[in-house]
Amino acid sequence: MGNIPDDQIEIINDFIQESRDMLDNLEPTIIELGQSCQKVDCWSVLDCSNKTCKRHGKSMETPCWLDEGYVGAGLQTCVFAESESDCLSCQVFVLTNGDPETMNAIFRLFHSMKGSAGFLEFDHIAHVAHLAENLLDRIRSGKVMLEADHVDLLCQGCDFAREALDYVEKNLDDQGVSEEAAGIGALLEKAVSEAQQKAERVHAPQVDVAAADVESETEASGEELPGLEDLITPEMLSRFVQEGDELLTDSEQLLLAWGEDPGNSDSLAELFRDIHSFKGNCGFFGFADLEKLSHQMETVLDAAKQGCDFGEQKPADILLKMVDQLRTGLGSIADGGRGKLENLEDCLAEMKKLLVKTDQPPAPDPEELRLADLLVQQGVVASGTIATLMRTKSRPLVDALVGCEIATREQIEQAVKQAEKAAAEKTTAAETSAPAVVKPARSVVGKAVKAAPKGGTIKRQDIRVDLDKLDKLINLIGEMVIAENMLVNNPDLVGLELENFNKASQQMSKIVRELQEMAMVIRMIPVSGLFRRMIRLVHDLSVKSGKKVELELSGEETEVDKTVIEQITDPLVHLLRNSLDHGLESPEERVAAGKPEKGVVRLSAKHEEGEVWITVEDDGRGLNRERILAKAIEKGLVQGDGAELSDRAVFNLIFQPGFSTADKITDISGRGVGMDVVKQNLEKIKGKIEVYSKPGQGSSIKLRIPLTLAIIDGLMIRVGRTRCILPLLSVREIFRPTAEAITHTPDGQELVKVRENFVPVLRLHNVLRKKPDSFVLHEGTLVVLEHQDDRIGLFVDEIVGQQQTVIKGLSNYLGNVNCASGCTILGNGDVCLILDIGSLVDVVEQGLCRLDSEPAGGEMPAVVTA
């Protein structure tokens, strides 16, 4: 590979694979477009009655609307029609120029290929894709008729792209396809030139306005954000749309539940969190309209949480309309737009009215407004008459129309039926011609390397595998580990001399371990992609808050499970928002405190103790213990004055739902939503969160995530007749203490001296409520366990041995099982608990299991839950 860095080879490989995927979708879609195109005349097919049209009765080489002009922006219709629906030639546009949805899909694919090739400086590929894009834009805007030659030309463009990608795979540029690019480029330029000449024949002045609007719309859907391509990739946008759709779907259900039961505080709280998350995501990507709208929705919901009286108004219904608007914006983004909302100001004003008590009559019912529009379109009633009725009516619209003898009920019912039939036919046609969903090309960060050695090749074969298949593979390997343990530890083999069997079992164990490790590696991806998403977030938050911030990234090469990446994205966003809003001081405050004007936020990742540690750290003011404690007492989260609570216990209060010490609510944070979501997401993947802070020096929040969620190396121990598993990575040493090394603190805590340090002892039989073989420390075994910077000595009866352990989750009906993170199945079929080292350390720190003597009758003391 010469001197080309691996990450740049990765970028080129991604481009090649994504482009080939696009071509696989492009070619059949282009063929589909050609099949949907029919060359017809509007006057002959639709019996156009527009006798004044000078093209009436003539063969149509170009659409009549091209010569006669446009009525308005985007309407392919002749000047004699008053609206799109009145013009039959507009309706025949689909027949003559192919299905518009298919056209847009092809346009987006060529546009994505052009963008990615341009970033990599594969100029020939980018140039050909750009020319194909120009031709498609002319066709889809109605400036030129789609012909069979155009379909053939686009297919030739696909053929060229495949040849160019093959060349790029063997070499590191596309210079060797310059002649082919010139040939196909000349044909495309000729087609575009002919389209331009036809467009110049348009003489009506209103055509220029419409054409400009169409072009501006095209530009808006493409490259509206120059300079952001290296921060926001298509994968990120795709994930945003998917997550946004899920949040809005949940919000709709919660709004319906809240509307039925306004006193349902649980639905309201969950709804508030969904809208808050949606707003944060929109802010991250810079979709200003959606962010403003969701922020105002959040304000209304916050008022509802505070018990605001909305009077006769129905906030749930209004917010449902706002969710529809958010969906419209989300659909625009999915189609390559920016989520602009034309009626944003009206929506904001409508929600602001909810927060102001008024004696004005309620707004018209949306259903009646739709009925009014339908009746006007069907010609049942004039628009002026319907407007008067809507302003002055004191009864339902249908009753008013019938009572005033403007229309009969039969006329109204017939109009509704006709509209429903037309809508159903339109939906069926759209579903029939809808193109397959195509994943957008992955955008490339930075520019490609130009100095690639000639003759260098990129020979790496990649395939895409569904995550469900990988999950099934890992589960099967886990079952294989269990089966192996059952075979090797089969009781029938005890006492037998089986040399050949032992050799074969050892070889099988080695293969199973390699399989397990390989399966886990397949799912691992570096956190660099996740970390780089935060660059834009910190930049935007810095601008909003007026604070100067420098983001330092480290450990980007650290790899974690792909599922983990998806689960910790939201937590990281919340932590960074809080760090900038609450943690860092304003520039004036920092200077006054003797700090640099620019604050520092550090985002790091590393492997430690069989876990991935992701840390968000800042050099701000730190957490205010007294303020947090006061707020917790005010909310009833702490009994008494809380003086006995440790700093760790106080700081963990910030993860309580709705907890916030902010004096001012901003669109960054301050409502008490987010930190509880961080904790919930971490718990889903068996992770933990830890908070450290020093007043005036800053805060550090550490996310501790298991490196693997499936199989670990474990140390089996025994207490009495009970066996348990300890994660081997947490074991530091094993020994039998002497009587002289054991001492006690005044409150009964046992300590054992390990070289120059004293380690607190935890008797595991106290935790498990099991009778041990011995209560005397120097007659048993101590296992020294390490958790973060803390060490404890775990007193057990016996070390049984080491084995691979398949982690199985504990059933929900068991509730909260203290000190256990899961279970596994032993070779003999018994279930064995996997102990959680962090929980064992907490038991020691809180003094819940002190020194005990052997109880009478063998009755063990009750477990005190942590």
UniProtKB/TrEMBL annotation:
Identify the residues that the record assigns to the CheW-like domain, covering every copy: 711-846
What EC number(s) has UniProt assigned to this enzyme?
Answer: 2.7.13.3
Residues with Phosphohistidine modification: H111, H276
Which Gene Ontology MF annotations are present? ATP binding; phosphorelay sensor kinase activity
The HPt domain covers which part of the protein? 69-168, 229-333
At the top level of its lineage, which domain of life is listed? Bacteria
Q: Where is the Histidine kinase domain?
A: 505-709
Q: Does the keyword Kinase apply?
A: yes
Q: Which InterPro entries match?
A: Bact_Chemotaxis_CheA, CheA-like_dim, CheA-like_homodim_sf, CheW-like_dom_sf, CheW-lke_dom, HATPase_C_sf, HATPase_dom, His_kinase_dom
Instruction: Provide one Gene Ontology biological process annotation.
Output: chemotaxis
Identify the Gene3D superfamilies for this entry: Histidine kinase CheA-like, homodimeric domain (1.10.287.560), Histidine kinase-like ATPase, C-terminal domain (3.30.565.10), HPT domain (1.20.120.160), SH3 Domains (2.30.30.40)
- State the GO CC annotations: cytoplasm
List, alphabetically, the PROSITE patterns matched: CHEW, HIS_KIN, HPT
Reaction equation(s) it catalyzes? ATP + protein L-histidine = ADP + protein N-phospho-L-histidine
Keywords noted in UniProt: ATP-binding, Chemotaxis, Kinase, Nucleotide-binding, Phosphoprotein, Transferase, Two-component regulatory system
Q: What does this protein do?
A: Involved in the transmission of sensory signals from the chemoreceptors to the flagellar motors. CheA is autophosphorylated; it can transfer its phosphate group to either CheB or CheY.
Q: What is this protein called?
A: Chemotaxis protein CheA
